[in-house]
Structure prediction request, 394 residues.
Amino acid sequence: MSTFSVNQVRQLYVVKSVVDYESSSLPSAAGAVRMQTQGGYMWFDHYGPDGLTRSDLINLDHLKYFKAVKSSAMASTMKKELITISDSALSTSATIAGQDYILKFEFSNWGTAGIEDTYYKYATVRGNGVDTASVFYKKLYDSLVMNFAKESVPLLKFGLVGTVGGLTIYTSDPSYTFIVDDAKTATSAAAGVITIGSSSNSTAANFNADIATAGLDDIIYVSAVGSVEDVSTATALTYTGLWVEELEQPWSLGSKSFHRLNYNTRCNKITLATGEEINWGTVAATTVDTTTVGNGKLICDLEWFTAGERGDIYRGAYVPYYPKTELLGEKDATYSLIELGYAFYDSGVNEFPSEKTMTFAVKDGAGADLYTNINSLINDIEAAATSFTVADLS
Prediction:
């Protein structure tokens, strides 16, 4: 009887629970796994989407490596940038009349199969010798919103950075005005006005906790706190920059894999009164209030691929007449990984190792149980593979 999968280089098992390896009970719940050992071999019983299966038999003498990876190491932080205009691109604190301030986005390999394909998008503000930097940022934001509005799939998210009452605020909706009230502790919004209670709040974390409680954390985020002052009349932010953030793209199991946008942001050149040409602004990465996407979709993609490697029936090879197997991966979950590198040596003279990788994508728990399942499996493997030590995840 074959003890080894000859053709599949990587095997993936999505794990939702761990049965103790000393237990006599076979896994019976979807995603359950149990390690077994006998005669110098280690293997795993796994209850997958189609029932109970057994992994390769791993000769413990041929185990090459054993490692664990936290889900956070596979998370994707969406690209976020802050655009600011240079002082030298202003004349007496105003945009230079007759100059076009263009912000250009270059999307590479967008919706195509080739890196050579580039998709361009622009935002433009015409200098008039009057607009201050704050007015310029608002016009640039309006131009971005208008130019990206026709995209069937949203690519980027835009917002402004500004100050009011000693607070520096990132906002995704510049239609709001602000009141800063030292007599209040809570933050609220009504009729397009956000009232920020500054009583007993001294740090950005304090303010943002109140903002989240009010359900306004999708609209504003306090990035810095200076000398806080009361602002009793609803006042617009004085804008100091514009931020742009990458949006997660549509995903569909088996037809559209998880991928990031590949793009560059550039400020074009303008001509000063002296005839000198300069880039009108700077584009800098920012980590303020970024969006992080877990690795659930990546694991679903990998599970779909490896399931298809076992048999084309899992990949819809006979469209439209094929069964849709319900796999175990959950797109909105996060998974920490265990990887085992091992090799199969056949009998004979001068045999070569057939090296394989076995991956366990263990669903993270909640709260204090975040790594309970994966640590249980790590400890089981350590008990069999005594020459390897992997620290529990924490």
Observations:
- The longest helix spans residues 133-148.
- The longest strand covers residues 335-344.
